[in-house]
Amino acid sequence: MNISLIIPTLGYSSTVNKLFIALSNQTLLPDEIIIVDSSKDKSISNLADLFHQELPIKYFKVKNLFPGEARNYGINKASGDILATLDSKTIPNNNWLELGVKKIMHENYDIAFGATAYLAESSLQKILQACIYGKNVVETLPGSIFWLNTFNKVGPFIEGTRSGEDLEWRNRVKRKGCRSYSFTTQTQTYNDISTSLVQEIKRAFIYQLHGAKLDVQERTRIVIFGLGTLMLTLLIPQWNNIVGWEESNLYIPNITKSYFYFFSIFSILVLILSQKFHSIIRSVYFRFVLFSFFILATFFVFKWNAAMASWVEESVYYIPHITKIYVCLLIMSGVIFRGLYMPISKGISYSYLFPLRWILVGAVGLIIDLARFPGYFYGAITGLIRIGKR
């Protein structure tokens, strides 16, 4: 039995140093530690030389490999029949490898997934922890231990994308029927949450665009697709008023009716193209239909005063500022969802969120969601096409 540990890295020498120290203290050492280094400097190479006497390091310098590509590269160089994965920012517990190997060897699991706890120190890190990561242990690819035969059965990591390939591979493991184990307590920690909100927003934007290429997070993408369509539904009826009616070159006659017809036809086509029509209630298309009704409800809210009260303010059916009220309610619902429901469901304490910090957490969460929006929207469209072809 040989164990090969694969670690892709793009710099981050400070955390790699902590990682090497943690590996030196493992109750079970791997037979080889394969470092796949895409960084431009020699900091990781120097660390590999420094720990070479303590750890069985095999160092490979490569150029511009994304995480999935680097893992595939490292696995191709591995000689072990048991594979383990870590990232440069994940620090394992001292008994991590021993526990994982016991699971797959003595309890006949094909894979033991990593269990990561995200740690925060600064005020901003705690806010990001609350609105993104949470305090509960998260099942992750980093920290996973599996047989080489399992990897061959599931297939390599998808290449050419900067993020999402780990989630896609874990989903593939489960679809292939592999017997997997998920630890309920942490096997490693991640304590390198961003210390800059601008960097986190940029990261969210870039990573979600890359993740849009993959077959992951389909439900979330459908939600975001619905929200995007909602915003269009609010904007379209006001378009001619915004651009200046007939005097503007951007004026579009009958734009609201045209949008309504287009959206109705699009919804019908999505259903027709689905080969899962017989099980529609169990599919994402049922959720898509629900969102269609939600969009139509929004349309009716926007048209309420015109249709029901003919803009007569004295009418019993007239509702002042109905659109503004509706939009404000949507925003507040988003803040409550991102600032209360999601953090609490992920293990954030009430004492941290109350009395007012949940508002800040919710606002930051919405900002990050807006940064992810282009990727979610693009991924929703490609996801609908991809699912419809199945």
Question: Could you walk me through the main structural features you see in this protein, from its secondary elements to its overall organization?
Answer:
- The chain is of the alpha/beta class and 390 residues long.
- It is built from 15 helices and nine strands.
- The two termini are 40 Å apart.
- Helix 8 (197-211) runs parallel beside helix 15 (357-388).
- Strands 1, 2, 3, 4, 5, 6, 7, 8 and 9 form a nine-stranded mixed sheet that branches.
- The protein has helices spanning 13-24, 43-50, 67-77, 96-106, 123-133, 148-154, 165-175, 197-211, 218-235, 239-243, 255-273, 284-308, 322-345, 350-353, 357-388, and strands at 3-9, 32-37, 57-61, 82-85, 90-92, 111-118, 138-147, 180-182, 188-190.
- It folds into two domains: 3-194, Spore Coat Polysaccharide Biosynthesis Protein SpsA, Chain A, CATH 3.90.550; 218-388, no CATH class.
